[in-house]
Amino acid sequence: MQQQLSDLTERLKQTFGDRLVSAILYGSAAAGDWNEHHSDLNVLCVLSTITPRELRESEPVIRWWREQGHPPPLLMTPEEVRGSTDCFAIEFHDMKEHRRVLIGRDVIEDLVIDRSFYRAQVEHELRSKQIRLRQKAAETLTDRDRLIRLLIDSISTFAVLGRHALMLAGRKPRWKKHEVISELEETLGVRFTAANQLLAFRGAGKDLPKIDATPLLETYLKEVDALVRFVDGLDR
């Protein structure tokens, strides 16, 4: 992981020179919850200007980074970072809590997140992911392996949103996914049996468990619904 980040930083520096304001690692790797089998390396790349020239020059770097198995860096200007805390409240909230400046200056430190936008985004993301999960599950119900993979792939997102739901409720931030699930159980008074099982599958590696996925899906959907209703009931 560290070698890949060092290589990325060097390529960004060589490509953009003094137009590179900063490169910042965020997400699970910055929070100490990175899993080599499932987690990405998420990087915010801040450039002084972004024109077709910068996009053209960034293509080899982004292609190489994608080949390493990671999503392309977020390309933003400092002005865009400062002006986007309302529509990207979740992302910038996480960056303020856990980030690592790989090169350049820290453009995140002084950002202020408005709670009203923050809460609305958490509920929006939860409801969108809930609907998407139902759609994808309906497509894969007769394919056990695809259904299990869908559920395992989804648990990380719901754990992240669960963490933000807890923070909105005034609970202590939890960053490791199993700690988030445990705190949700205590706060909501609901057993998150399926979520815990999916986290165990996720941590075990890429080999899929030989289980009946349908009961797991039914329990998981109930747990997701409990989380959505919890956030919907929070003060606006």
Low-confidence stretches: none
Number of strands: 4
Mean pLDDT: 92
Question: Could you describe the largest sheet, including whether it forms a barrel?
Answer: 4 strands, mixed
Which geometry do the CA atoms define?
A: globular
β-sheet strand percentage: 5-15%
Give the helix proportion (percent range).
55-70%
Class inferred from helices and paired strands: alpha+beta
Helix count, DSSP H or I runs of 4 or more residues? 10
What string gives the helices and strands in order?
HEHEHEHHEHHHHH
Strand adjacency order, main sheet: 3-2-1-4
How big is the Rg?
19 Å
Kindly, what is the distance between the CA atoms of the first and last residues, rounded to a whole number of angstroms?
Answer: 40 Å
Number of domains: 2
Molecular structure report:
It is a single chain. The protein is an alpha+beta fold and 236 residues long. The chain folds into two domains: 2-104, 2-Layer Sandwich (Beta Polymerase, domain 2); 115-232. 61% of the residues lie in helices and 9% in strands. It is built from ten helices and four strands, in the order H-E-H-E-H-E-H-H-E-H-H-H-H-H. The protein has helices spanning 2-16, 28-31, 52-67, 78-83, 89-97, 115-140, 144-168, 177-188, 193-204, 213-232; strands at residues 20-26, 42-47, 74-76, 100-104. Strands 3-2-1-4 form a four-stranded mixed sheet. The longest helix has 26 residues, at 115-140. The radius of gyration is 19 Å and the shape is globular.
